[in-house]
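Structure tokens please, single chain.
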Amino acid sequence: MSEPASYVISACREHDVKFVRLWFTDITGTLKSLQITVGELEKALDEGMGFDGSSIEGFARIHESDMLARPDPATFQLVPWRPREQGVARMFCDIHLPDGQPFAGDPRGVLRRQLERARALGYTFYVSPELEYFYFRDDRAAEPLDRGGYFDQIADEGSDLRRDTVLTLSAMGIEVESSHHEVAHGQHEIALRYTDALTMADNAMTYRAVVKEIAAANGVYASFMPKPLPDQDGSGMHVHQSLFAGERNVFFDAAAEYHLSALARGYVAGLLEHARALTLVTNQWVNSYKRLRPGFDAPVYLSWGRRNRSDLVRIPQYSPGDETHTRVEYRSPDPACNPYFAFAVMLAAGLDGIERERPLPPPVEENVFEMTDGERAARGIATLPGTLGEAIEAASASALVRAALGDHVFETLLESKRVEWERYQRHVSDFELAEYLPRL
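Here you go.
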């Protein structure tokens, strides 16, 4: 048995762990869990645990359903919201086929492949996402827990929930950078501290689970739905990202304009070039496109700048000239995405821009929302897809997205989203009934 696996066994004995949850993710980013007793742990670590992949969205057809969940000992953590006596732990799993081959549809595997590509070029990919979410009084109606606004303190009824969430994340080894009330009523944000992208994708999945568990324990419902309130801002997941070569941030150049290296400029150019195709992955739900509308602080236009929050890509200026803090912020993703896929396609787009030495257009420091269509056209500023249907069309034509996700995930994701889009198009909404039934 390997040293990490031996550590897991001894940690379970030390902390009186009786159950271990084996976590993994389906193609939509939904967390799945297989619970085993500690008596099965050694077998799980050595051989993996079998399960029916045909019952997991995007995994396998019924005649090829057998799969193995192989726990990653490096992700072992106690589950703090369960009792300490006869406690519960969790580990994330890599999914394999019965012959031991990695499963092509495993989200962790998809991200790993892109990280290996970056590593072959000498880079480590670091990310820090800001995941926004809402507290509602229950899951039956979108009634916000509070009527606070950005950074409010007195009207912030969710502050204790956020505090307990941060403490729980900390107990699980997940570092938090900041937390605060967001712009919309009942909306909150907890920003996770920079780390490598695979660890961060695991952390983002844990974060979403912890937010919901703490809320439920306090009789409140937490939602990562991108746009639950029609006249309030939606929830985003701004992703700060950078590439390092050893200890050196390769996005930084002290002598360059904005301190952005040629590599960073190529990376941003790649993001902008492929942004329309990436959107199906970073904003995968019909509801995602209710958030991506002008007037609600969510980016719509393909532009970049420094302090300008109407741009799709922003170069934060909190510490100008500081190598460590030089980074790129991609602002369109929402917190209901699959973080493994989102990080993978963003990295793929950025590396493509670097490798092809794509030129970066001039920055846009004006408010893009306030420009006329003619002014945007004159500046060559295109738009993100406006509907899930447009996003499907853009992604389906992208060789880069196919290569980043792999054929299995690419085809399965497109099939799933086409079904969702067709169902949405057939649906007759309350708005339509109220607007048209009485007069048509």
